[in-house]
Amino acid sequence: MGLGFTVGVIGVLILGHAAYSTIQYRSLLKITEEEFSGPPMEVVLELLVGLLFCMWAALTVPGKFLSVHPHSDENRVVSLPENVDFMIFNHRGRAFPSEVGLKLKH
Amino acid sequence: MVTKTEESQLNKLENQVENGGGGAWEYLCLARKLKARRSDKVLKYGLSILNDSRKRSSLGPDEWTLYEQVAVAAMDCHALDVAKDCISALQKKFPESKRVGRLEAMLLEAKGSWEDAEAAYSSLLEDNPFDQVIHKRRVAIAKAQGNISAAIEWLNKYLEIFMADHDAWRELAEIYVSLQMYKQAAFCYEELILSQPTVPLYHLAYADVLYTLGGLENLQTAKKYYSSTIDLSGGKNNRALFGICLCTSAISQLARGRNREDKDSSSDLPSLASAALEKEYKLHASDKLSVLTSTLKCLRVSS
Q1: Considering CB atoms only, which of B75, B82, B86 is closest to A89?
Q2: What percent of chain B has pLDDT over 90?
């Protein structure tokens, strides 16, 4: 988790650096009075690298993803909950006390 | 609905607590959440937490929920003095509470004094005539006394008011099945499937009831619902696999006298089901595999 977190922070810093370079490039173009068509090639590459880092961190840091399929082996319904509202107490278990001497001690 | 992971987690916690490895509080919370009826374990480990004043104070406000859980478990194990002590502790803390009043009436039920319990529930209902749990406890009293027709009557009256309560529909379906009134049970299961179509166990129960009713249309519908159970449970429900094989054999027996309709388009379904069954048995119960193969052969031969 530490590695994923660090990679995520590095990715955000790379994106920030790319934004800063683009702003600097634009101000440079304003000085030389040229059109701003798009950021230079290096900045685009830097953006892609930052994107990859951030995506990798976003997928690794939260931990194990749970399955969503309702019929997968972990998520399938195995039994229904007991109907607790209709539970009755005069069943045969009355004749077999589980443990003698169970008491609430205060 | 209890999923496979939750069930295995519950069993693992239970083993861990039984072998002295701690984790009793997580076990109790999970048992309460899944509504599993393991009253003897809940009673034993709940009391061990409650009797230890250090552990009790570390629970904070959850202590009272634990008292309630232990009280109900004690009533289920017929340890009525433990239940009485828990309820009096709850009463001291929450003197005018309806929830505690309900527990007291349940204790009267557990003792067997049905009229006192009835009177207690009626007085509770006067203050709050739309309390669902108390209506359901009245049905439970009728059921416990063996008066099934009164239970059915109360339950029908309850369902006229609270039509969306699927626990009550399930209870009514089970009561009808116990009385062999299968058509009414089928109606109740239909209501359940309408409200919760993704729970495979309702489809399975409905298919069982239809198969018991018999008749060609019912058998064909039962086969469809067994297939939907297999679909919804990822193919792991052995009962539904068996159901398909039995339905196919019963249908072909019934249709033997009439003209053999060309339903051979679905003829690979029973063979697939038997193959899946054999695979499961090989995996889990390989010594019974021969019994299974001979049974399946008989089903196919007699058709």
Answers
A1: B75
A2: 53
Domain boundaries, chain A: 3-60
B290 vs B296: CA distance, rounded Å = 10
Measured between beta carbons, the chain A residues lying within 8 angstroms of B235 are 71
Are A73 and B85 a contacting pair at CB < 8 A? no
Per-residue pLDDT tens for B197-213?
A: 989 999 999 999 999 99
Nearest-CA neighbor of B197 among B238, B232, B247? B232
Chains A and B form CB pairs within 8 A to the count of: 124
- Range from A2-16, A72-86, B216-230, B275-289 carrying the lowest mean pLDDT: A72-86
Among residues B20, B21, B40, B33, the alpha carbon closest in space to that of B62 is found at B33
- The reported pTM is 0.84
Query: Of the candidates B2, B75, B198, which has its C-beta nearest A78's C-beta?
Result: B2
Q: Packing angle between helix B4-18 and helix B39-51, nearest 10 degrees?
A: 50
Q: Do A81 and B3 touch (CB under 8 A)?
A: no
Handedness of CA B159, B163, B168, B173 (dihedral sign): positive
A93 in contact with B at a CB cutoff of 8 Å? yes
**What element of type H or E holds A79?**
strand A77-79
For A85, the closest of B4, B109, B136 (CB atoms) is B136
Q: What is the ipTM of this complex?
A: 0.78
